[in-house]
Automatic annotation (TrEMBL), chain A:
GO terms for molecular function: ATP binding. It comes from Flavobacterium luminosum. Residues 7-236 form the ABC transporter domain. Pfam families: ABC_tran. This is ABC transporter ATP-binding protein. PROSITE patterns: ABC_TRANSPORTER_2 (PS50893). It comes from the Bacteria. Keywords: ATP-binding, Nucleotide-binding.
Automatic annotation (TrEMBL), chain B:
It holds the Pfam family ABC2_membrane_3. The chain crosses the membrane at residues 180-203, 224-247, 259-280, 292-311, 347-369. It is a multi-pass membrane protein. Residues 135-372 form the ABC transmembrane type-2 domain. Belongs to the ABC-2 integral membrane protein family. This is ABC transporter permease. InterPro entries: ABC-2_transporter_component, ABC2_TM, ABC2_TM_bact-type. It is found in: Cell membrane. Keywords: Cell membrane, Membrane, Transmembrane, Transmembrane helix, Transport.
UniProtKB/TrEMBL annotation, chain C:
Its main location: membrane. Residues 140-366 form the ABC transmembrane type-2 domain. Belongs to the ABC-2 integral membrane protein family. Keywords: Cell membrane, Membrane, Transmembrane, Transmembrane helix, Transport. The keyword Nuclease does not apply. The chain crosses the membrane at residues 21-40, 171-195, 222-244, 250-273, 285-304, 340-360. It is found in: Cell membrane. It is a multi-pass membrane protein. This is Transport permease protein.
Length: 244, 373, 368
């Protein structure tokens, strides 16, 4: 594995009034790895991620993403990353083609590049039939695959995925993870939050957040050894119990 | 620039996709301009008037028929008891009760002086004032008439000195209210449409979650804002054009001034309104909130614009508030240019004020739009 | 029922948690009623006029002084040539110019007639007409003061009495009007948008598959707004009474009943709008863009309905606000009871029933 650090986080903290959502977390993500960001709902995953993608300013601490500081160079960060939010966020009242054109356009792709991308995506995702359908009419699984592809349009160095497989069936989830693998193989760093513990097994390394702090960080294999259990689910349960 | 084009393209697509919305955007303003312009008149007419004729003489009947002959009044049934007539007023069936006393004709002949009492429903004070003037006018015409008829005229040969007031009404000599109201209502409609749509626009993306997706892209604030507002700017000018055509063709509103000046002014004015809408959008979390705030300001802008009630009659502090009202400047402007043919120099003041507001409001709007929080 | 109460509670929480909306809902109507109550009047005074005195003699000076002392006019400046009139009008500040003819006094003495021309900028017909009337009134007054009273003239005198509003306060007309505009728009707009919002973000479906019945969902959503609107109505009436000294001559109970009736009819109009719109934007177009000007112009709030052309008078009948304004004025100022306004009340009840019936029909079609 490549040892080049593409995300460096140091003591990153976010406070909302009296409430500290993220308590000084520190970790690194290496280039090309699939980094799992685990935690229960409300553990601070999404808040931490929003600081890394430059739409939320840290209260204190530092983070460097793709070589840029998230506080002072957030617009540069945005050029180097893709993001897929937990809430589906494409325009329901536009067609697939129009959505791709729009997002390609605001990432600065030329009309020609956009055309190429559309042809490529139609082929990869077998969109021939639906390319001119409104996005609102698609099933959720399709929408999520599409969101992922749109997040990759400008060929970012890192992709942030916030609960990408929430609410879809196991088969679609599998297909989705195949897409993630393909992309990681091409050298894109994947930063993914999830609360499905079986998905954690697919990651190169995972961190587990509890109450705003990172309580464990290693490869799934090592974590299972460390906690002397058989599955990531048990790791998580044990960890949660220890904290209490 | 290229990025802006992508946003504009997307916004237009969204507007044109929602057919029912598109219909409303055009039908509502056109329909309202056509209908409401006819209703907005202060020309007091068809006043329901009731007589209580306790005298029942030739003189009293002549007086009543003088009212009947006037175009202002509709004489409704006459009653013998004042109470009965007042009851009619309470029911809202009549607005004026004229009471002619029992000795009316006798007093007139003996004392050369008769008197009638006139009770006016004064809930609407301004209308009541006008009604009072009309009653007085008809009675004084009646007075002149009976003097000519009466024998006293012979004793009164000396010619009076008389100062004549000759009114002349410029720009609108028939005192046509439509000429006055149509351009004003058009201004209101253009303003409402663009303010409501723009104030709902960005907060809508906030609510649907797409704004977050936009915020993680490297797009520049100004690109996003220009791209979002441009379609509404075009829409405003299109509605203005349709409205001007209706004004000319249907209402025959004179257009003495330079139409290009109207477009130039509107272009800047729309920037002000759209910037304001954007500002509202930035400071609200839901479309409902945005709508309510836009509504609040719109009602104030409309009622304090000088379109329906004169600004000069307001107390000084309220007149000062109207100085911040964009509609005020637009209404003044469009009347000056269309009806009086004022030119660039005469409207420069309004133009500069609106331009200044536009700069300030858009500055605030861009500043308050935050990609990060 | 328990479930329903729980649901209503949830709706209340929604509204009351959002402090900003709450502030807006109560603060803005108060601000509006105060602003409009003090500021708006359709009386015409302080009109800026200019004078073109071609004769400049004792007589004209006397008349000009009289005009200057009137509250209706502010004499802005003197004009020295006829061509300046157009210039002044185009600038827009001066609304009228009074021209005294050459040799004014001399003409009056020798020919017994002298002429004042009142040239008005009639782009505002109401103002122009009123200026013309005021000017002749002032000059007539001047003449009659100058003349010896002639006892031998036959004359009918008019003794006017202003009913219901002896001091001719504009605010008596505007408080009912502003109250109506606020209640109408707030109720219709807030309900239509809050129901379509649930549709748009998809929570409506969740509510509909829950064991709560559809009409309970709607009533639950509307209920808090009935409550809020009633409080708004009370605040407005209190301000009218204490700040603007607006009398409540009729029964307070009847006034409350009619206000609640009107609020419910506005809310049911809001429900109707929400059944025919799919997005909040459409609901907004219908309830705000569609209702605002018609309610202001066709309700009798500003423009007297009797003076409108007949087709407009007929159209005004479909505006619920028109009937409520008649009712409020009748109860508060005329002090009448239900026997005088039962017709208007029935019309409001009829409209409400109609709105609700259509909503239920539309709703059923949607569910099938």
């Amino acid at each position: 594995m490549n040892e080049e650090k593409i995300i460096q986080v140091e003591n990153l903290t976010k406070k909302f009034g009296d409430f500290t959502a993220v308590k000084g977390i520190t970790f690194d993500v290496y280039k090309g790895e699939i980094f799992g960001f685990l935690g229960a709902n409300g553990a601070g995953k999404t808040t931490a991620m929003k600081m890394l993608i430059g739409i939320s300013n840290p209260t204190s601490g530092k983070a460097n993403v793709a070589g840029f500081d998230v506080l002072s160079q957030s617009e540069m960060v945005k050029k180097s990353i893709g993001y897929m939010s937990q809430k589906f966020s494409m325009y329901d009242d536009l067609t697939i083609k129009e959505n791709i054109t729009f997002f390609g356009g605001i990432y600065g792709l030329s009309r020609k590049q956009i055309k190429q991308k559309i042809t490529q995506l139609v082929e990869e995702l077998e969109l021939q039939e639906v390319i001119n359908n409104l996005v609102g009419s698609l099933p959720l699984g399709w929408k999520q695959k599409l969101s992922f592809s749109v997040a990759l349009l400008h060929e970012p160095k890192i992709v942030f995925l916030d609960e990408p497989t929430g609410g879809v069936d196991p088969i679609t989830r599998r297909q989705f993870w195949e897409m993630i693998y393909t992309q990681a193989y091409k050298g894109t760093t994947i930063f993914v939050t999830t609360h499905y513990m079986d998905e954690a097994e697919y990651c190169d390394r995972v961190s587990i957040m509890v109450d705003g702090a990172i309580e464990a960080l290693d490869s799934p294999k090592k974590l299972k050894e460390q906690f002397q259990v058989d599955s990531m689910n048990d790791v998580f349960l044990k960890l949660a119990r220890n904290i209490e | 620039m290229k990025t802006i084009l992508f946003i504009i393209q997307k916004e237009f697509k969204q507007i044109f996709r929602d057919k029912s919305m598109l219909q409303l955007i055009f039908i509502l303003p056109i329909l309202q301009l056509l209908i409401l312009s006819n209703a907005a008149t202060f020309d007091v007419k068809n006043i329901a008037i009731t007589f209580v004729d306790n005298n029942q003489s030739r003189e009293s009947r002549e007086l009543i028929s003088a009212f009947d002959a006037s175009t202002y009044f509709n004489v409704t049934e006459s009653y013998f008891s004042e109470n009965k007539a007042i009851e009619e007023m309470q029911k809202g069936k009549t607005d004026i009760i004229v009471n002619i006393p029992v000795n009316f004709n006798r007093n007139l002949q003996k004392d050369k002086k008769g008197s009638i009492s006139v009770n006016i429903n004064a809930i609407d004070a301004a209308t009541a004032g006008v009604e009072n003037v009309y009653v007085t006018q008809i009675v004084s015409a009646y007075n002149k008439n009976i003097q000519i008829q009466s024998k006293y005229i012979s004793e009164n040969k000396e010619v009076e000195q008389n100062i004549m007031v000759i009114p002349s009404f410029w720009y609108n000599n028939t005192l046509n209210y439509k000429t006055f109201m149509v351009p004003g209502i058009l201004v209101l409609l253009v303003t409402m449409l663009t303010l409501f749509l723009s104030s709902m626009n960005i907060v809508r993306e906030k609510e649907l979650g797409t704004l977050e997706q936009i915020n993680v892209t490297p797009i520049k604030k100004y690109q996003f804002i220009i791209g979002k507002l441009f379609p509404f700017w075009v829409l405003g000018l299109v509605i203005l054009t349709v409205g001007l055509i209706i004004s000319k063709v249907v209402f025959n509103v004179p257009m003495l001034g330079n139409i290009l000046l109207v477009y130039g002014f509107t272009s800047i004015y729309l920037l002000l309104i759209l910037g304001f809408g954007l500002f509202i959008s930035n400071h609200t979390e839901t479309q409902q909130q945005a709508m309510f705030i836009a509504w609040f300001f719109m009602v104030i802008f409309i009622l304090m614009s000088g379109l329906f009630t004169p600004i000069e009659s307001m107390p000084k502090w309220a007149q000062n508030i109207t100085l911040l009202n964009p509609i005020r400047y637009f209404v003044e402007f469009i009347r000056m240019v269309l009806l009086k043919g004022s030119g660039f120099v005469e409207v420069l003041n309004n133009l500069l004020i609106v331009f200044g507001f536009a700069v300030v409001v858009n500055g605030l709007a861009v500043w308050s739009y935050k990609k990060t929080n | 029922m328990k479930r329903f109460i729980g649901f209503v509670k949830k709706e209340f929480y929604h509204i009351f948690r959002d402090k900003r909306s709450l502030f807006i809902l109560f603060g803005m109507p108060i601000a509006q009623i105060l602003l409009f109550g003090f500021a708006i009047t359709n009386e015409i005074n302080n009109v800026e006029i200019a004078i073109f005195d071609q004769s400049n003699d004792v007589e004209t000076q006397k008349i000009i002084n009289k005009i200057k002392s009137s509250p209706y006019f502010n004499v802005e400046n003197q004009i020295n040539k006829e061509s300046d009139i157009e210039k002044e009008f185009k600038k827009g500040k001066i609304k009228a110019v009074l021209i005294f003819e050459r040799d004014f006094s001399k003409n009056l003495q020798t020919k017994n007639v002298a002429v004042v021309q009142a040239i008005t900028d009639a782009t505002e017909p109401n103002v122009a007409n009123t200026i013309a009337n005021y000017t002749s009134a002032i000059i007539q007054n001047y003449q009659s003061q100058k003349k010896q009273p002639k006892t031998n003239l036959v004359k009918v005198e008019v003794q006017s009495r202003m009913f219901y509003n002896p001091e001719l306060k504009s605010v008596f007309n505007f408080v009912p009007g502003v109250m109506t505009v606020i209640l109408m728009l707030v109720s219709a707009m807030m309900t239509s948008i809050s129901i379509t919002r649930e549709k748009e973000i998809g929570t409506m479906e969740i509510l509909l598959v829950s064991p709560i019945k559809p009409f309970q969902v709607i009533i639950g959503k509307v209920f808090p707004y009935i409550f809020l609107s009633i409080i708004n109505a009370i605040i407005i009436l209190l301000l009218g009474f204490f700040v603007f000294k607006m009398p409540i001559n009729g029964s307070l109970l009847l006034l409350s009943f009619e206000s609640i009736l009107f609020i419910i009819s506005a809310l049911s109009l809001g429900i109707l709008i929400s059944t025919i719109s799919d997005s909040q934007q459409t609901a907004m177009m219908l309830s705000l863009m569609g209702l605002m000007l018609p309610v202001i112009i066709l309700s009798g709030f500003i423009f007297p309905i009797n003076s409108m052309p007949l087709p407009m008078q007929i159209i005004s009948n479909i505006i619920p606000a028109k009937w409520f304004i008649i009712i409020v004025k009748a109860i508060m100022l005329k002090g009448v009871g239900i026997q005088y306004i039962w017709k208007e009340t029935l019309i409001l009840i009829g409209m409400t029933t109609l709105f609700i019936t259509i909503s239920i029909k539309k709703y059923k079609i949607r569910l099938e």
